Amino acid sequence: MMSLINKGFGVENLRLAFPKQKEMLLKDLTCHYKKGEKILLLGPSGCGKSTLMKVLCGLIPQSIEVPMKADNMSIPDKWGYVFQDPDSQFCMSYVDEEIAFVLENQQIPQNDMPALIDKYLKAVGLDLENSHMLIQELSGGMKQRLATASALALDPDVLFLDEPTAMLDPEGTRDLWETVRQITHGKTVVVVEHKIDHILDFIDRIILFNENGEIITDGPADDILTNYQKQLKEYGIWYPGVWEGRYGETDMAIDPLEQAEQRVYMKLDHFTVYRKKRPKVSIPELSIGRGEWVTIIGENGAGKSTLLEGMMDLLKYKGEKRWFVENDETKVSFVFQNPEFQFVTDRVSEELGFSLNVKNMDPDKIEKKVKAELIRFSLNKQKDQHPYQLSTGQKRRLSVASTLIEEPTVILLDEPTFGQDAKNTFELLELFEGFRKKGAAIVMVTHEMEIVHRFATRAIRLANGNIDEDKLTARGRRQVDGEDGYGQKLDHSQHMVL
Amino acid sequence: MDRNWIIRSTWFYNVNPALKFGVIAALFIVGLFIHNLNTMIWLTGCFFVSYLLFTGLAKMISFWLLFTAFILAILSSTTMIFFGKGDHVLFQWHFLIISEESLARGLHIGLRTFLYTVIGMLFATTTRPVQFFYSLMQQIKCPPKYAYGFLAAFRMLPIMYEEFYTIRAAMKVRGMDRKKGIKARYTKIKRYAIALLSQSIRRAQRTAVAMEAKRFSETSGRTYYYIMTYSRYDLVFIITIAGLVAAAFWLSVAFPFTPYTNVLE
After folding, report:
1. Closest alpha carbon within chain B to A117
2. Alpha helices of A94-235 — where are they, by DSSP H?
3. Which chain A residues are within 8 Å of B221, Cβ to Cβ?
């Protein structure tokens, strides 16, 4: 125990295994840290870094019972923890009550509470006119700041941040890290995170794990970023320059479509989508054609998802919407943000064949097709598993695969790369590009500007439910001008009826 | 109750929730022992009027809830009216027999159903869940783990509601609607259940861990953000309720609408 006290906090020779798993997740792991250090735990998903963090604060095994053993352990007395999911870390309905709950737990007198609540909310930049506000009405980024405020209310010596921005858009991510930077002066901070561009300047030490849960290196942030690029790339970490590392400095070349042919697939005319009986998006005119990759961008609440859901008949709309495809039920497909909602069977292979089954396709043909798709989406090893048992990346691949198996002509995607690591994101994007080349039209809601600049041929910016901007990207202009061999201009005023 | 549903605050909101709960529970028991149809009519009338006076619920929602209560009351009364025993038969058709006695009993049961719903609504629409559970912890020493457990569950209801719509949309997109027949309907219900439950169970588990990370524990004592105490409103409340019950009993003797003073006879 003595050695640890001198070194601060940490754990020595930790052995930990989740029940029913053959292999140990963490084996003979030793990790020390000192007061005032700002540490980033990096590694591929599922390598056990988040589990290690829960051990370091004592949540494992006190609150989450997992069999574990360690020779020496030193846990800080006062610590705060911010979790990944903004929707599952509050127990009260109102902002002030949530922080009050933390204060109550520490037996702080009621008289002192209102002032403290204000203090912590101000510290994280949540300047609400009235702190008695429904948590439900906050954006994801604001919820995570509230979670940070309630962690601060514990007056922690050590702050543990467990992928706090995994479910936030780029703006929310930037704001949250800005807040963290301001409030953690002189405090010890331990972070697990995949998107690291915003935090590198305040992290001074990185611990890098491999997929077996072993520490491969531990040192100053700069050294690791320069000397371990290969591992960062392999583990799908969003390190600065990851896009350039994969695709170079410019956008994607635009090859000619496999069959050159112009066609408009969808046309909207005075199209207004209603959410909760209120008009949310109004589009005077819009057409989307063959071989286009349209990204829909804009701030939260601008109506991006609403527009997509309106196109899919999931919300009520007024105006005209016409599809120029063989069959708009099967040839237009939609991939949701949360893949789990879309799973309708108990096995990965059944999941893939489901929509073909609905169409009463010949069973032999289905089997062949499913086999091919399992290999294409690298899900062959998991084919007998339950979809819920897959990793985040695998779930996303399965949800995309099971929608794309019908070979749709129009693919609508609602933030398909959301919460995915770099490796999975690139694989998905390349896959969509493959479909586009075959002539499909891709309509994608995204916050990631790199996708817009590198892959999209056209970008539509929505603001307050209206089209603010509808432009071809550089890549799209090349497609129209035919510099890369597309040869024909895509004329949006014309449309063909099948 | 949801903030959007409540449109006004009446003095019933100021009554101590635990005490209000106790009085309402006592009323339920009193209701069980009333066999005089006239008393039941007056009691229902009195509480119906006081519900209208004191509820904070928006009018349309209030109307639909009362309408539902009315339908329930009619359903429960008809079982007694159509098939009850009695000597003075008014109407007979095959196995349906309506007698004066069964009519009285049926009305009595129907009124009781309506009365209970109205009393329940009077409590539910004038009490904020947070204050109710804080009051339970402070006045009757309810263990915090149950109180906060319920509060956390309240928070999840709107999330589940939204999730339900997302799942419905996702199922539609996957072509669940294209499959027809009883088996397809069964698998659809099963999918909804699995999707909703698995999300909720995991969310509940994560919330529990997050609560412990915020140092929530059973052992230590705690302070309260909302201090719930008794006030003069409580006395007024008890007098009002007692007054209403007494008035109903007196009116039933002074102005009886029916000759049935004991429906059990």
Report:
1. B225
2. 95-105, 113-123, 140-152, 170-183, 221-227, 229-234
3. 107
